[in-house]
Amino acid sequence: MARSFDAVVVGAGLIGLFAAWNLARRGKTVLVAERGTIACGTTGASFAWLNATSKTEPDYHRLNAEGLARHLELARLWGERTMGMGGAGVLTWGEPEATITLDDLAHQALALKDLHYPCLWLDRDELPAFEPRVAFGGMAEGLFAPRDRWLDAPILARHLAREIAAAGGEVREDAPVTAIARNASGAIEGVTVAGQTLACSQVLLAAGPGTPEAIAMAGEEAAALVPVRRVPGLLVTLPADGARTIVNHILYAPDRGNFHIRPMADGSLLLGDDAVDAMIGDGNDPALLPAAVRALLEVAAGHLPDLLVADLLPHARAAVGVRPVPGDGRTIAGALPGIDGLFVAATHSGITLAPLLGELLAGEMIDGSRAPLLANFRPERFASG
Asked: What is the pLDDT of residue 59?
């Protein structure tokens, strides 16, 4: 074999890069192999809301809260601009006849308070002070979570690639992994990267929606342990309005598609809607995008009357991100049972969880420990009894 590494990480999204950074700075020789370019997949086409607000199951909330805490710690170390971090909270609201009712919102608020996650209840008269340009319903009330942030994830990904190189690791772009080799006992012994055979004893698959295909390279029996669906989502970017600030926070609306919008560092706006996502099919047909973009802007204008659809349509930039959603909707992270040296991370909470999962998985790869935080999220839960 031409070269040898302690570990090869498949995928240069945030999870893979954070894992590689933790491995490299703890003295391991590590290669990140990316078939495209850094952050070219889900990481680069994500709403990138850093939060634990939307997860109220205690174990999943804790995982997300710890992930957000890691981001905030790194922001103090590297600086928010270096990380591409911004924002100061999310505003969710409910209305009596909406998809998110006032009862739903009250239950969420109570759950978050029980979990000691900061949040503030806002009555109808207080909402305009937070977002004066939003058309709230006459009976609307809100929930504000000040800890949440947003991320320009490709900025952080490129910074991590530099940190990996500084720690002695390597990130290769345009370097697809096409084979994973196992020895006679079934353990990992190497990979083929861009036609080159490399020796390694550990592989971490952080391939996002490509996880099932990546795992299948190590054996069909492994692929069955990580059920992951591809869920496409439309994101639209609108240019900055030089005359006014349209939104101040991340907004999460109570309508059928849970319309969401947030500012970006340059003053532009990023928006999406789960119901509109159904209009783009599998995300591979560009002909479906114009109607979906118009529909999304019409939803946006219903909440933000200052957004004029006809004026904005020529300037709207559309992107489709494909989210990897585990079969039971909960993160999958850890060693694959039965294949010594093979690890996986697959989650649709990857932006929030990336620094935590990278740290915990690197620790398990180095010393074989099993992080208690991952106890309920390991792939063996899918194994047949």
From this structure: 95
CATH superfamily of 3-45+153-227+327-382: FAD/NAD(P)-binding domain (3.50.50.60)
The token pair that represents 271 in the structure block: 């928006």
Beta strand 85-86 with 228-238: parallel, antiparallel or unpaired?
A: unpaired
Mean pLDDT across the chain: 94
The CATH architecture to which 88-147+230-326 belongs is 2-Layer Sandwich (3.30)
Checking 97-101 for CB contacts under 8 A at 24+ apart, the result is 98/137, 98/254, 98/255, 99/254, 99/255, 99/256, 99/258, 100/254, 100/258, 101/254
Copy the structure tokens of residue 131: 């977002």
How far apart, in whole angstroms, are the C-alpha atoms of residue 362 and residue 380? 19
The answer to whether 318 and 361 are in contact (CB under 8 A) is no
Helix, strand, coil tally for the chain in percent (to 5) = 35, 25, 40
Least confident among 14-18, 149-153, 240-244: 240-244
